[in-house]
Design goal:
The protein has about 375 residues and is an alpha+beta fold. It contains ten helices and ten strands. The chain has two domains: about 290 residues, CorA soluble domain-like (Beta Polymerase, domain 2, 2-Layer Sandwich); about 60 residues, Up-down Bundle (Methane Monooxygenase Hydroxylase, Chain G, domain 1).
């Protein structure tokens, strides 16, 4: 599962990791190294209006029998092992270019249509509360006649439990509709989860704003930079999903029912709203940065104000002491027995009068 750090390694040329002082070059045409899992999990839902079968396997060899059996079949594969992916894609006539996309982790969300198969690739996003960062998992979805294949990087977690629950309910929309509706449902769940991630980030932005108003120290600036990086991750993952949904809406492929296209329009609206939220949050981050800088400048102005007042209050004593310290033989009151007391009195009275004048002008008000 990708985190923000290793996503930046793929995204930015020369990005340095925190633990390794190594520059990682990035070329989009290069294959990103992917460690194959020791085991994979294959979950199959084979259903129609009347019944549903739920099966689990440790490999893809038993999945071919579900093709063209008159039912709708959803095969979810957790773990990208090259041999297994190539085998099941060959059995379901998935184009080799799409197989390459499935196995290449860290790609931009996209949608393709090849040989009567509709394919889309997008990222599931999670918010890690412990590390306060966004984690990603690439999901590839292939829609064919009577089946949907979904490929995930890991089996630790996903967002599809609501769909699994609905498939077990007799008479549900998923059980009645075809494979295209199942494909829509998978995409819809992924898109809806973007709002959960955005909500978590929104809470952190509000907390950060309160902290800046109260303290506004260097830690606040570091938090601003971290959140700005998370916003970049969000934008690069959410914004291209509009093109993915547009691809389904513009497609005239017979795999998509006209009624299902209406639901894709609803997903498109959700993606647009999520993009608007991301833009709003980015504007808020810029405002928070300005707020931090204004807070720092205000604090500096307060310091300069105190120093200026102290300088002004000491100026009369400096002037008086300088006058009576000049090396002239004839200075008025220089040899007067009360001259010292008069000079000290002036040094005290003039600053007191200055404080009164400053206060009357409102210079001490914050």
């Amino acid at each position: 599962m990708a985190t923000t750090q290793n996503y930046f390694q793929r995204l930015i040329p020369g990005f340095q990791t925190k633990n390794l002082n190594v520059k990682i070059p990035f070329n989009p045409t290069d294959d990103i190294e992917h460690k194959e899992p020791a085991e994979i999990k294959v979950e199959v839902y084979d259903y129609n209006v009347n019944k549903v079968s739920h099966l689990e396997f440790n490999g893809v060899h038993d999945c071919k029998k579900f093709r063209n059996n008159g039912h709708v079949t959803w095969i979810n594969i957790d773990g990208l092992r090259k041999d297994d992916v190539e085998l099941i894609c060959k059995e379901y006539d998935i184009h080799p270019l799409l197989i390459e996309d499935i196995l290449s982790v860290g790609q931009r969300p996209k949608m393709d249509e090849m040989e009567n198969v509709l394919f889309c690739l997008l990222n599931m996003l999670y918010y890690n509360e412990k590390d306060s960062c966004i984690e990603m998992e690439q999901v590839s979805i292939a829609l064919g006649k009577g089946y949907v294949l979904s490929f995930q990087e890991e089996a630790n977690r996903d967002l599809f439990n609501p769909i699994r629950d609905k498939l077990k309910v007799a008479g549900s929309k998923l059980r009645i509709a075809g494979a295209d509706y199942l494909c829509y449902s998978l995409i819809d769940v992924i898109v809806d989860n973007y709002y959960s991630v955005l909500e978590k980030l929104g809470e952190h932005i509000e907390t950060l704003e309160e902290e800046i108003i109260r303290r506004g120290n260097a830690r606040s600036l570091a938090m601003i930079n971290d959140l700005r990086k998370e916003m970049i991750i969000l934008k690069r993952n959410i914004n291209p999903v509009r093109e993915v949904i547009n691809g389904f809406m513009r497609s005239d492929n017979g795999l998509l029912n006209d009624k299902t296209l209406r639901y894709f329009k609803d997903v498109y609206d959700h993606v647009v709203q999520a993009n608007d939220l991301v833009e709003n949050y980015r504007d808020m981050m810029m405002s928070l940065q300005d707020l931090y800088l204004n807070k720092v400048n205000l604090r500096m102005n307060e310091v300069m104000k105190v120093m200026a007042i102290v300088t002004c209050l000491l100026a009369p004593a400096t002037v008086i002491g300088g006058i009576f310290g000049m090396n002239f033989e004839s200075i008025p009151y220089l040899h007067n027995k009360y001259g010292f007391y008069a000079a000290v009195a002036l040094m005290l009275l003039i600053p007191v009068w200055m404080i009164y004048a400053f206060k009357k002008r409102g210079w001490f008000k914050s």
